[in-house]
Design brief:
By secondary structure, the protein is an alpha/beta fold. The protein is 46% helix and 15% strand. It has two domains: 111 residues, Rossmann fold; 67 residues, Cytidine Deaminase, domain 2, CATH 3.40.140. Helix 8 links the parallel strand 5 and strand 6.
């Protein structure tokens, strides 16, 4: 009989958004419930793979606009790549894998996006801004890395905008959990019409 494959839980967000707090709360809850939990925290400052990230953040390569968004995102990607085999092994062993960040470009985009918008975009001109909603990056990264989202659950503080909700309604994602509404419930109705399970959790 094949052992059940593990579950991969990722907490994403920009610096100061409460990721570490939620990471610890979820970890403690899972351990208390008797789950075998493997944790990952990115960047992995205690690993050699974070060498370029550390030097970049220390300014050894110059300012962010001198390094550029594509080069610097590679530093983060190398750190994730080093952990990828360990994550895969934990999942194959049936563990619950809990990660504080994991998608390198998504994390980079949220953390540095505003800086690089000022580099490339005319001031106050929204037509030139080069950042996406995180839902777009999520689906693109899943496509490129061949991650199957069928049956997945997305947790979000704010319900997705109608455009993203319509896009997500055409995926295999099964459930959406949120705290704050968006667009007077229109996005919720879009997802429900597509047969998605919706749960609202009010703190």
């Amino acid at each position: 009989m094949n052992k059940r494959r593990g579950i991969f839980i990722v907490i994403e967000g920009s610096d100061g958004s409460g990721k570490s707090t939620q990471f610890k709360l979820v970890r403690d809850k899972l351990v208390a419930a008797g789950h075998d939990v493997a944790t990952f925290d990115f960047p992995q400052y205690d690993q050699p793979s974070s060498y370029f990230v550390t030097r970049y953040l220390n300014g050894d390569y110059g300012q962010a606009d001198e390094v550029g968004p594509y080069t610097s995102s590679l530093f983060y990607a190398l750190d994730r790549f080093e952990a990828s085999s360990k994550i895969q092994a934990a999942l194959e062993a049936g563990q619950v894998v809990l990660s504080n960040r994991v998608v390198p470009y998504q994390s980079y985009l949220m953390h540095h996006g505003a800086i690089h918008e000022t580099m490339f975009a005319p001031a106050n001109d929204l037509n030139f801004y080069d950042t996406n909603h995180y839902e777009v990056e999520l689906l693109l990264d899943a496509l490129h890395t061949k991650i199957d989202l069928t049956g997945a659950t997305i947790f979000a503080n704010v319900m997705h905008c109608p455009t993203c909700a319509r896009m997500l309604s055409r995926t295999g994602i099964a459930e959406f959990v949120y705290a704050q509404d968006h667009s007077d419930g229109y996005a919720v109705r879009l997802l429900e019409a597509a047969g998605k399970k919706i749960r609202r959790i009010v703190p």
